[in-house]
# Entry
Amino acid sequence: MKNLSVLLSITACAIGVTVAAPSVSASTLGYGIQSEHVLDLQERLSSLGYFNAGLTGYYGSVTTDSVSKFQRSYGLPVNGKADSKTLDKLKQVASPKQDSLEQMARIIYSEARGESFQGQVAVGAIILNRVQSNLFPDSIPEVIFHHGQFSSIRDGQYWLQPNQSAYDAARAALNGSDPTNGALFYYNPAIATASWSLVRPQKITIGNHVFTL
# Structure
């Protein structure tokens, strides 16, 4: 599902990213929430075979259906909401993976480790904006490894160990912060060579990066 709630977007813009957006309580996950906890939920359900869609961190209809199937299988009340009982059972039977969070931290670190925290969150937001766009794949891993999109994948910097700031920026983006206001691309004008990137409509400049549609 390539839609995010309008309310979430407005709230994220309003609070900015001087600090990470507050994460949603893991005991209240339901339709319309975007957070690191939803991503963890999706990865656990995926490891058990209940979730067979793109890992997005967004609680939409597919996640609702997957939770309902899990609840039915384990004799829990079936309502499609990841309440405390559902999450407790899921944590008992499925180990955490957090592969997508790790991947986001790696791409943020390799692409923007010299930028401010806001600039790092902005790169994370680009990943999630692409997940929601019909122009790109609909999962975090597929967007990150989409052929030819990130120079750090090509030159191997992606495999550097991220620092804590990169993980914090990934979580902030997953929890709704988007300082780019919906941008899909970015470039460094000091080193950019692709002419197509220079003519795209600009949204905002953060540090050394220009963010565009």
